[in-house]
UniProtKB/TrEMBL annotation:
It comes from Citrus clementina. This is Expansin-like B1. GO terms for biological process: anatomical structure morphogenesis. Gene3D superfamilies: Expansin, cellulose-binding-like domain, RlpA-like domain. Pfam families: DPBB_1, Expansin_C. The lineage of its organism: Eukaryota, Viridiplantae, Streptophyta, Embryophyta, Tracheophyta. Belongs to the expansin family.
Amino acid sequence: MALSLKSLMLLLATLCIMQALAAEAETCPDCFIRSRAAHYPNSDEQGTDSGACGFGSFGATINGGDVSAASGLYRNGLGCGACYQVRCLNSYYCSDRGATVVITDSGWGPNTDFILSRRAFGRMAQTTDAAAALLAHGVVDVEYRRVSCSYPYKNITIKIDEKSDYPHYLGFVIWYQQGKKDITAVQLCETKNFACKLLDRSHGAVWTTTSPPSGPLSLRMFFSDEDGDDESWVVPVNNIPQDWKAGETYDTGVQVN
Ligand SMILES: *[C@@H]1O[C@H](CO)[C@@H](O)[C@H](O)[C@H]1NC(C)=O
């Protein structure tokens, strides 16, 4: 009897510790998480024009080409445009700061969360020599955390998808979203009668609708943090013009932090 009471106490103590650890993980959104990172196998320094997010060439060159494909963090496209600080762990080669990358693609490697552009991979190193050595490793242990994206002197910008077909089918991606929230819903509203239509996330970061509303269009974006505590609609000052065109970009006139 005494023994079972003792083991019960031990069990309770273990549960308490586990709960405390779980609580610590929850209250520690800025903590680094251990993982691994690889780099794109091709010789391009930057990312890829055909990334799963649908960003096009923006997805290769944004942030100076410090971009990454993500596996789990891709989150079915919701993770597109999110920024992460990634630093490798070998103190001989790696800097404390590491690289800050934008997710623009989906990709899976050997137990990796990130497949970085070669440029971003090299930027985790202290020197160019160390970068060459690091790239030769191919896959390295890293730690990462989500950070705010920053695009100085840029407003959130709408890039109409090349596949759009005025006025029947409208698709677009959202460029230069600062901060560390996700855009979880997008609406287009007619400016005359405020009839609104909720768009679909067709794939990656691409929002689409068949039969878009007509006239100048007011965009509404729903921003949400990862645990859904801080949510709000953002309505840009600029409308998407009535005669929107495939391939065109439109400055929304707003930015978020
Ligand atoms: C951002 O939008 C504001 C209007 O809201 C505009 O005055 C400013 O020039 C825009 N910035 C850029 C870099 O386009």
